[in-house]
User: What shape does this take?
Amino acid sequence: MDISKLTDVKKVDLCKKYFLIGACFLPLVWVVNTFWFFSDAFCKPINCHRRQIRKYVIGSIIGSVFWVILLSSWEIFFQYYRAQGLVWTDYLTFVFPSGRV
Amino acid sequence: MHFNVAYMVLYTPFVKETDSIVEKGLMSLGNALIMLLVVVFMTVLLIVFYKYKFYRVIHGWLIVSSCLLLFLFTTIYVQEVMKSFDISPSAVLVLFGLANYGVVGMMCIHWKGPLLLQQFYLITMSALMALVFIKYLPEWTVWFVLFVISVWDLVAVLTPKGPLRYLVETAQERNEPIFPALIYSSGVIYPYVLVTAVENPGESREPREPREQPTDTEGKFQLAVPSTSTGFAPAPDTGAKRAKVKRVAQKVQIETQSTSQGEGSGGVRVERVPTRPVQQEPPMQQHHDDFQEERGVKLGLGDFIFYSVLLGKASSYFDWNTTIACYVAILIGLCFTLVLLAVFKRALPALPISIFSGLIFYFCTRWIITPFVTHVSQNCLLY
Assistant: This one.
């Protein structure tokens, strides 16, 4: 869809829906929300609708950053212990590449 | 994946190892005809559902198929990629990431999402489906299947009783778009004005808005080019052997803009300049307010899948000549199809021209050009 054809009310509605959907452990939705509504939130003259969109976009940005930090710290933690060869890491590994000769 | 092979054997049962060319050819032809039968059956099923207005069934079918593609096949693909790149993330991260990817995909395809992302997901799914075909169909069967499906496309769209033509015409009569998950569109959003265009093909120009670009009025013609459509959903339990293959219907739409009335009757050219017909929208418009249809050239996903199959199979022999030849052939075929679309202004199949030219180019390159080039460069005559 092209949001430039939507009315402001509908834009706010869509942004809000994306924000709420992203709150269900779906940071990618937040990322998409950020990129999609960024120009509407920050690059255009302000009015009451844009203020709301701005609110949701900022929320999405903060949420995405939080999830990125969380997931990367988990992954670093996991790989550190996996390199040491602990057994519990084997249970959580997704695939065992056999490597090349 | 073992179960994939098992499913494919269901469709292509003739897999005896043999050296005789005739036998191989006959087996491949048999396989191709069986796949064609499956496709025809699924198409007829879809038409029946559409005719009797079982829209929920069709939507459910589409959602299940796209779920399958987005989650299961992507997981398998990601697994293979990780094995070949030697990276081994935790299952938590991978499953979380895949769940996110799948959910965003479902939202973009079936609900609302950025156009670019929707195009990305549709292309990715088509490529994945093509990969399945390339990997799990037997050698010669692929070529026969391509040929047979193109012939079917031609027949189904152009004959007066063709099922796909019926589908398109019914959709036009009912003033509905064909299901959103089946079409790839390359334009910008545009309120749905199919009604006027179809009823009055010569008069469907909205009068200019004074504040719009002054040199363009617009007429919209829907020229649909649907093709085959089948559904793929493996049975949930291991015992059941039923599986339906899904490819999605093919359709090409073209929107034309004629030059302004001030400049006389212009020619027809395809453009994607967004104009907004605010005033003269027909009353139907209000019903379709939330129902926004993209402008620009539209192509069905089945087209993408079979083009990708052709190209992927051609490149799997590690020869750049054939790959580039097929690529060029497919693109030229597509351009030619679009030109024909503008000329005839009616439903045209998008597969045959591209696939036939691709096949011709592939076999000529493989059997004639490549040995010639190899021979010539080995003897240092050229290159």
Observations:
- Residues 82 and 91 of chain A are 10 Å apart (CA to CA).
- The two ends of chain A are 49 Å apart (CA to CA).
- Chain A touches chain B through 30 residues (CB under 8 Å).
